[in-house]
């Protein structure tokens, strides 16, 4: 029983790590999408498309 409990806690830790990675990935995706939208807005506003959007990242 002790070894079974140990494996369960390991599974829970792995699941938590995966969930955290999933959140990070979702955040990165949301960030990228909002950046693309801003870039499109900028181009439709006929501002210079060469202005680097990377300077806004933080």
> What is the end-to-end distance?
48 Å
Unreliable stretches, pLDDT < 50, 5 or more residues?
none
- Which strand-content bin applies to the residues? under 5%
Q: Characterize the biggest β-sheet.
A: none
Q: Number of DSSP strands?
A: 0
The helical percent reads: over 70%
> Structural class of the helices, strands and pairings?
mainly alpha
Q: Would you tell me the overall average pLDDT?
A: 79
Q: SSE layout and pairings?
A:
Layout: H1 2-44
Give structural notes.
This protein has about 60 residues and is mainly alpha-helical. It has one domain (about 1-45). It is built from 1 helix and no strands. The chain has one helix at about 1-45. The chain is rod-shaped. The relative contact order is 0.08.
Q: What would the keywords be for this entry?
A:
58 residues, 74% helix, rod-shaped
Short description:
The protein is built from one helix and no strands. With 58 residues, the protein is an all-alpha fold.
């Amino acid at each position: 029983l002790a070894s079974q409990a140990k494996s369960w806690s390991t599974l829970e830790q792995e699941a938590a790590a995966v969930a955290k990675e999933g959140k990070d990935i979702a955040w990165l995706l949301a960030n990228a999408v909002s950046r693309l939208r801003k870039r499109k807005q900028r181009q439709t506003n006929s501002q210079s498309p060469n202005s680097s959007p990377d300077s806004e990242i933080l």
